[in-house]
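Pair request: fold both.
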Amino acid sequence: MASSLLALLDDIATVLDDVAVLTKVAAKKTSGVLGDDLALNAQQVSGVRAERELPVVWAVAKGSALNKAILVPAALAISAFIPWAVTPLLMVGGLFLCFEGFEKLAHKFMHSQAEDSAHHAELTAALANPAVDLVALEKDKIKGAVRTDFILSAEIIAITLGTVAAKPFITQFSVLAGIAIIMTIGVYGLVAGIVKLDDLGLYLSRKPGWRAPIGNAILKAAPYLMKGLSIAGTAAMFLVGGGILTHGVPPLHHAIEGLAAQLGGVLGAITPTLLDAVTGIVAGALTLVVVTLAQKAWGLRKAAA
């Protein structure tokens, strides 16, 4: 009996060890989505009244938890009944990451700063207008943020599923559930901190002594932090998405590995990362072209009808 119990405990310890290692691997692979998730969600709740920022973040966090409660069982069902679909789903998720990253770049170049400033001014004017239903505006922002979260959560779960697809069910469940919990708490905890950063800076700037300079520094740094998160998130989307695509095409993956081995040294170490990024950018550009043409064709068809 004692030996059976020890054997069971050893099996549990082995599973937990596998879960810990795989969770770290999955977290590393999904870091690109995490960076973009932070920036997107912080932007989604911008424009909300200061006293309503944290309640809005909390509402979106609850929506995010519900999204993952749907996505994790769906991922486990796919792994159990149609495991062959894991790689295609990963490829679709990687392609979407690349598309989303390139769409952000294209938006930057296709829309002038004046247009973005006009949109921000319009939102600010709406908030100041007593005739505007702020409750409805807040609900719309929450719905939009939850929809965005669903897409990003699906990418995170798909990438994580690819990491543990060959593992036993208990390991798959533990890693998927662990990543879902960690990402939800981590993302929305940081989002809450980011959206209140300016309030912290303002509070400190009004205090005497050494706190005022720190507060002013925070106020100046907050916009750059948001911009930095957005840039890092976009770059990581190309790296992660491109890496998924190159790994999903064995001949391309082997060719990149062979090239890296031939180059050797530091250049050989960074070559796979650079080529993953190039693959992600090219894939994103091609997907954007296809999607844009399809949208135009659909629009013409509807207009003709």
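--- second member of the pair ---
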Amino acid sequence: MRFASEGLVFIFIAAAIAAGTFMVALNRRSWPLWLLAFLLTIIALWVAYFFRDPERTGQRGDDVVVAPADGKVVLIQEVDEPAFMGGRARRVSIFMNVFSVHVNRYPISGAVTYVKYNPGKFLNAAVEKSSLENEQMSVGIESAHGRVMMRQIAGLIARRIITYSKVGDTAHQGDRMGLIRFGSRVDVFLPLSATVKVKIGDFPVAGTTVIAELAK
């Protein structure tokens, strides 16, 4: 299984602690230490599971928008987004829990023309006001059929957003563009002319599930 490079140090530390506890338990022949070592092994396996980075394939095209994140669709709304979209836009919000794949992917191909970091709070990422108040990174893409923006939003537990994107980069649909550690949310902003293909409660798969179609 492939793992995100940003998580390798966490995987190594968790595995080393679990292995060290097993060695101490073996040396002291202590059942409480054996139990602790077992619990630490479960945690180490979860850390590795959290940072998994599977390959993804699916439908591609200039007129389709694929999910940038695994998780649950929690909001679909018409909102104001003046910074990049230039006014009203359709927002699809995908909440990632601690068991979701946390590698994020480009929803559309095009030129990266906008990258903006905003510091902020660490509220529950599933709630509406986290879109305005939480720490976040926005990446705007000029696609063949209009502007599309994705926004990585830190959550209640998440404390670091990682974004590879820089202004001037070329976004390739489905490619990896970043990661958020330990529970978070990704918003996708679409033109109002776009047709949303998911509904609240759906569980899209990053890089695979088509969440919208753009007007040609």
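Observation on the second member. Residues 70 and 205 are 5 Å apart (CA to CA).
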